[in-house]
């Protein structure tokens, strides 16, 4: 279950030595000009799915690591190739683009998984921000994790985090809401660090265990064993979890399994570094038929992007559980014949 990936990453020291001060200065100057200089040659990427965060507006809000990954990947999966093409052109990146959005990701997934199994490095970007966060990519990342294909986050801009950090509102805990194919709300709750007092800690875990949202905790390395014991007691041994350690660092690791398995795995192990633990929410049965408001939103979005009415109906039908006749009838009411 443990998937250590230190051999997939370039040492920060090696990367720092490769990116000299003059180059960093040239890159900064390039960000404000129309013709940025080409990036320095970098070693090939190890095979895996790279989730690359891209600017939410200002093109300077991209990391050196993100630029290197986009330059060296075999292919870039893009939500909108026309939109992403402008970013790549700005930084003189020639990597091939392949469209990957909510209307075709199920169709694309088998081909992408095959390419990953064959040893390719695949970068995934959305129109803006972090892939998989209210954007395509969540299901592909899940499939890769299931098939033991490395999933490597390249962190960067996130509209929600940027807005929260500058809001002045309480941010010790917050809920993030996205929608799935069927218009259902999917929640993630950042709990952060739990109270130090044992009783208060258990009380907070009991609250989290009843939530349908994914629960996200920050855990100090010396407290991981006790945390897993308490979490298993509140959530149950069968609840799935992910223990993410040293994210973006040389010993980055993602451990996946149940809380019961995590207790066994970490009972005699004392990990080092920063740890983030994610625990799946309580399963709640729900009707997967999409709402009419959701279907209307999807149809309007596609037609605004230039799709014909029949093409938009086809894409919405294939991406949801809605019946084609119902989607077509709604399209006719919205846009006429």
UniProtKB/TrEMBL annotation:
InterPro entries: 4pyrrol_Mease, 4pyrrol_Methylase_sf, 4pyrrole_Mease_sub1, 4pyrrole_Mease_sub2, rRNA_ssu_MeTfrase_I, SAM_MeTrfase_RsmI_CS
Alphabetical list of Gene3D superfamilies matching this protein: Cobalt-precorrin-4 Transmethylase, Domain 1, Methyltransferase, Cobalt-precorrin-4 Transmethylase, Domain 2
UniProt keyword terms in alphabetical order: Cytoplasm, Methyltransferase, rRNA processing, S-adenosyl-L-methionine, Transferase
Stored Pfam families: TP_methylase
Segments forming domain Tetrapyrrole methylase: 49-262
PROSITE patterns: RSMI (PS01296)
Gene Ontology MF: a single term: methyltransferase activity
One GO BP: rRNA processing
Protein's name in the database: Tetrapyrrole methylase domain-containing protein
Organism: Zea mays
